[in-house]
Amino acid sequence: MSQHRRPGFVLEVDRSTPPTLFMHGEGFRLERLPVGSRVIYPAEALPVLKDPDAAIRHALENPIESAPLRELLFPGMKLTIAFDDISLPLPPMQRPDVRQRVIEAVLDVAAEAGVDDVHIIAALALHRRMNEAELRHALGDRVYDAFAPNGTLYNHDAEDRDNLVFLGETEQGEEVEINKRAAESDLLVYVNINLVAMDGGHKSTATGLASYRSLRHHHNVKTMQDSRSFMDRHKSELHSSNWRMGEVIRKAGVKVFQIETTLNNDTFPKPFDFLQKREWEWKALDRATFITSSKALERTPFGIKNKIFQSILAPHDMTSVQAGAIEPVHELTTAKVHEQQLVHVEGQTDVLTMGLPYICPYNVNSIMNPILVACLGLGYFFNLYRGKPLVREGGVLIMSHPTPWAFNPVHHPSYIDFFEQVLSETTDPLEIEAKYEKSFAEDEWYRHLYRTSYAYHGVHPFYMWYWCAHALQHLGAVIIVGGDTKAVRRLGFKPATTLRDALEMAEDVVGRDPSITHLHAPPILLADVT
Amino acid sequence: MKALRFERSLPRFAAARIAGTLAPGRGAKVGPLKLVDVDAPELPGPDWHVVRPRLAGICGSDLATVDGMSSRYFEPIVSFPFVPGHEVVGELDDGSRVVVEPVLHCAVRGIDPVCSWCASGQTNRCERIAYGHLEPGLQSGFCEDTGGGWSTFMVAHERQIHRVPDDLTDEDAVMVEPTACCVHAAAAHPGGSDGSTVVLGSGTIGLCTVAALAARDVHPIAVAKHPEQKRLAKSLGAETVCAPDQLAGVVRRATGSLQNGAQLTGGADHVFDCVGTSASIQQSLQVVAPGGTIHLVGMPATVSIDLTGLWHREVSISGRYAYTHAEFEQAFDVVRAARLGRLVSATYPLDRFTDALQHAAEAGRRGATKIAFDLRTEKERNR
Q1: Do A421 and B259 touch (CB under 8 A)?
Q2: Three-state DSSP state, B250
Q3: Chain B touched by A410 (CB under 8 Å)
């Protein structure tokens, strides 16, 4: 890895600019953007920690605003280690996973201190449960084999009434209910992976270990519309609510030792590493790989393509680790995320284009269904800004993705019903929230599948749609290029066959000769828009 | 007079069955249905009237007959040759418009005393539909003596005649007979919003059942394949409209059920199967609640279904055939309230009967609901 990484920047397209890469689900396209368009490129990968295990040990021994971990541990105590679930990082990282490194280090310290009542919990909130292979990948075989067989390594269950505890309310009346074992432990160690600025801080415990009763106070339309954006903690109502809840958790006596890690944005392994290079720097091998893989993918059935892409393990590695009190730790973490991801952009654009990849936080080892396509584009990528949205109010967002009418029935059963029964009636987030959320959230069948199978909670597709609420309120139109026409229309968006068609359609909304900006992600970047 | 007449011809019946299997509605081209010149039927008695059809609908049972798909059950209760057409609005000699209530029950057949069912007013259950002074025939349109609506001339007994109010169009009036079937079906529902109700199928019978249930303040989950059917089902009073492959999920959500495999643990208390195929009955069993009832409104034939769930969950299957005289009268109100004349999508002259029958067989896919023969023009009248 080069130690002289280049920062992110904004390119203005001229006649000599080569075609621009657009991710397109389980594939990619080269598109020629009009002269004068801007392309925002992410920074190159930050240098990684040379000895991550030593850095972790150092963080545990020298925490911020906290005694060293070993001083917090004592024989006979209850220790709970919670960790970020399958939704992080993206793509899943090559072994050893950061969580394995950190948890092994924490367990070493715990063993030295004579702690033997240890539970390890996947803090998945209302996400699907992680299966054995996924837990082994995240935590390593040693941890899995030591804890899973005796039932001390498990997934958080937000519907297990016997293992939830109500800790109180915030001043705004937000109820705080979290995992009982975590709350009643002498120490809760939270092991985080901070892939984007939204992650971490009080959100780790207040969201990751919470129940629907608690989550509904910030996972709602108003919160999302009041977060500008939720990638900027200080302007995010989502985070304000989590911070208030964090205070309730602290006052209830829950002692949290927060360990946060950051990764560089080295996203794609060979032979797909050309996807994170700047197009004019592609070598002959990169061009050949692009051509052969694009042609091959065009002829490959969806199921096989999906398997190929879902098997990608990212080479990204740790750039920092910090431990101790939640808030100061998170300040450092956020600064490190910004160091990797911030790109300064001057002024908004009339039309924002983006190529959506095959993966988002909720379809690891699964299918990116249309609701997740919407969420990735309008929820995540649209919100990758600080200051002002990249696209002006009333502007147009053009996303490239095949958007198949396809769902994983094991992982996303309530998504299917949401898509077929709710979005067929209305796409208005407020109406959806008022009319349908409760019945999905309390549906006994979805609850059963969430608890015993590998299904996202019944309410989860609603949250995906709420994630889009700010963008839906802000934008004049959303166009999907190359998507399944019926699925795109069901989402309430406009389908276009080509980027050129989409740009022409956009002119109907924003006028002739619009300014165009392309978000060249992944790798992830955070636009600092002034 | 000109009439479309169905004759007993085994080779043509076999040809129709083959053609109808290949493509529904195609049996008309090769089967026993012919446009012929025939003598007008004679009045069977003093209480009978000449009816000159104005519009005559094409029903699913007619299509099954034309395609050779009808059950052999009907053989002893029809008489050949017959002129089909039992959904009829026509004119009497005095020019007044009437709808024919086609069931040929005891009183129509001159049987006295009438059977116990007719005595109780349930003429749809008449035990004498093959007896009395008329040739066998469960309804006008299946009886050699009465003629049928697919012609310019038929006869009907005074008890079969319902005057058409002036505010109803011919299109409204031709919908009264199928609607009456659905009023009768809906009468099996206790009414009101308790529990959950499904209407499977959104052809004429499905849509009219939705309307008839809505008149009883029951707003069902309707199953529709095609966009126009979905729109109509919603406008006629369905609470929810879904595609067939979505039904289990929709009913499961509406009733808070769990699932055992594909079988819902709970389900709808009433399922109105307006299709009548093996697949629709099987699907009805999948979504009906324990102790619930499947009402067969669509005419079934020979079906193959797994009845284990019916036995285990104590489900009832109940046939819903035709109507009583009172229900036929009620149908006028349902037609008026729901403006069911709008379901008449296309009309054809008799000599284009193959096109008409094909259109009827493909109605849903072609955005249509009810196809009818139009006999109002002078050219048709004077045939």
Answers
A1: no
A2: helix
A3: no
User: Among A204, A239, A263, where does a domain finish?
Assistant: A263
Between the alpha carbon of residue B17 and those of residues B190, B318, B328, the distances in Å are 40, 28, 33
Whether A507 and A514 have beta carbons less than 8 Å apart is answered as yes
CA distance A446 to chain B (A): 9
pLDDT range class, residue B32, cuts 50, 70, 90: confident
Token reading at A306: 């999906």
Structure tokens belonging to residue A502: 């989409």
- pLDDT tens for B236-257 read 999 999 999 999 999 999 999 9
**Model confidence over B190-205: pLDDT tens digits?**
988 777 999 999 999 9
CA A139 to chain centre: 19
- The residue segments making up the domain with residue B202 are 189-319
CATH of the domain at B221: 3.40.50.720
The residue segments making up the domain with residue A516 are 9-45+341-529
Q: Is the pLDDT of residue B13 over 80?
A: no
CA B127 from chain centre, in angstroms, equals: 20
pLDDT surpasses 70 at B274: yes
Cross-chain Cβ contact B258/A420 below 8 Å: no
ipTM: 0.77
* Both structure tokens of B151: 């012609």
Q: Do B253 and A416 touch (CB under 8 A)?
A: no
Short-list B168, B181, B205, CA closest to B332? B168
Q: What band does A1 get if pLDDT is binned at 50, 70 and 90?
A: very low
CATH number at residue A205: 3.40.50.11440
Q: Answer whether residue B184 is part of any domain.
A: no
Q: B 231-270 residues with CB below 8 A of A? A: 240, 242-243, 246, 249-250, 252-253, 256-259
Strand partners of residue A397 = A352, A478
Judged by CB atoms closer than 8 Å, whether chains meet at B249 and A420 is answered as yes
